[in-house]
Please model this.
Amino acid sequence: MWPSRLHKKLYVTPQSTISPFKLIAQAAECGQADCTRSQSVLRIWKSLKLANIQRLSNMEVSYGAPPESVQKKFALPVDSEHKATEFRLFSVAAPHMRAFHLSWVSFFACFVSTFAAPPLLPIIRDDLDLTATDIGNAGIAAVSGAAFARVAMGTACDLFGPRLASSALTLITAPAVYCTAIANSPASFILVRFFTGFSLATFVSTQFWMSSLFSSKVVGTANGVAGGWGNLGGGATQLIMPLVFDLIHNIGATKFTAWRIAFFIPALFQTLSAYGIFFLGQDLPDGNYSQLHKSGDKHKDNFSQVFYHAITNYRGWILALTYGYCFGVELTIDNIIAQYFYDRFNVNLHTAGIIAASFGLANLFSRPAGGILSDIMAKRYGMRGRLWTLWIVQTLGGIFCIFLGKVGSLGVSIAVMIIFSVFVQAACGLTFGIVPFVSRRSLGIVSGMTGGGGNVGAVLTQVIFFRGSRYSTETGITLMGIMIICCSLVIMSIYFPQWGGMFCGPSSKVTTEEDYYMSEWNSAEKERGIHMASMKFSENSRSERGRRVESAPTPINGTPSTYV
Amino acid sequence: MAIQGFLVVSLLFSCLAATSYGVTFSSLQESLVVTASPKHGQVLRAGEDNIVVTWSFNKSLAAGTDSSYKTVKFKLCYAPVSQQDRAWRKTEDHLNKDKTCQHNIVTKPYSSSNNTFTWTAERDVPTATYFIRAYAYNSADHEVAYGQTTDAHKTTNLFNVQAISGRHVSLDIASICFSAFAVVSLFGFFFLEKRKAKKSQAK
Model:
């Protein structure tokens, strides 16, 4: 019974992930508790030998890999899970690269809509008779919705798949953008910005989708580029909206009508991108969640266990705080910078938009560069390198933020702003170089928490420094820089027993990656064999030791202790 | 990195804002008498209602004071109540930084008496409380004198302008229709998805 059921799912391919001979050796060596998988492979091996399949002696065996005819249908090279092992930026091949392009474009559209109001605020504030407090509240409202929505989105992706979750969210927030055109008071303005801001939760579905379609070798690049190019929307909108407004105003509409019509552009863009994702996208290389759930090919994890392991891991909370002071700062600047240049340096709307745009446009390369830098430092110095680089880059971002508030001339201000933007966005990319290693089982929720933490940081910063008239905008910017430096200090408290932290090496007790990741599963779950993805991941994560990989201790028998 | 940082810092110190030469409001003499037709607290509709402005030189001052005046520029200025919690309308003494008067009405050549004109509040004037101020310029185009419809504390003769909302019925209808369409297509998505899943299960 047991061998024949597995036999159905077993394909024979020239490529493999684990040599059966290695597994047999392991099965012989290790003790009872950790060898379920190895034992089952041993049984399969025996049954296949019994069935007299001679060619197996030359080929190797792996789980779930398709026959050669099926594998040929992917345009990109794939691994045993059908995840792409290469990232080809200029391809739109289904399902991998097509999903990449659909997800970054829709995330970009959501950013454009969320930050469509700030560049037009000099017109909107006169039309709706807004005070500085109203504008501050609207800016806070725009980023506060997604703080919770990002965590919920992680769960939705797990249950319904990233394709349905992100297209549904994008479509349901589009009405808020359409209705911005009919806002007629400070209260209605704040409401529409609040509901539009929920769309920023598509960040989580983007990262989740990329992690489902790309193998660990390229997932960092895929995540970094998708995240960075989506964030680009916050910069592009500062260019697009004043241009669209100018166009409509020149055609003949009065200023107070032209800005309203201008909002239809981001709204339509958002609607179309949702359609694109629904009709052209695919959750997993093998199909969509709804089909895979019904056919029994996808196992559903226990939500309360996943949630528990996410919230009890202190590293997730620390990264949520520090992400609030790189991404949160980016969101804050997206909200205030156009008005800042317009009011302080007396440039016109168009020019203020271009300057503000250059902040967000740096995302084109700076966030992916952060991710790539994280990977380069990890190759040499492991996880400790990632942590040090994150702290240094984020602190430098804080220093340049302090300068930005102090500088009084236009040219120098622009230069400092651009340098500041590169550091702050690279810090975002560096943060998500660390997040995948915090938890394997609860990756979705930890990513959602970190992403949500970014929005909470934006809310906090705007409430304290950019609301009402207590601080002038330039003073607020300087104080924000000081806060970035202080909050980045907590990175020093992140400690992985198997790799170390900023100031301490790995634990003096011999601790391995398996110990850390297996502590998220109890023995009953291990008996059922559902922890195997984490096992595989912990093998791959040995690269986080840096140059010490050769001297890595192999897992020992005995119950691993739980690391919190 | 370090060199760039040093360059930035040195540029910073050399370019710290120095206030450029500019006229201050406190140096101007209030030598023009300006009156406007709206009464205190009257509400005017932008794009529809008119304002009649009468202005002349203040005869009680010495005769040659207005010899340098060449042109007079009239502006619509925000009253203190409309400047509250709105830093973009702040009053500053340096006139090139002052944001009190943001809407130009008209520019006229100077003449010492019997001047009136009528002006329709334009459609891009926001809803706020205003007064009217006139600046007299010399031939070098610097402000040399002023006059305003209100008193020194800006408490009397303030009038309101009610702006157009910018909304049109067609815009309202378009917004609602597109929003409804988005929500309906969302339900369509869920329905289609369920159908696809049932089909694959039946296979």
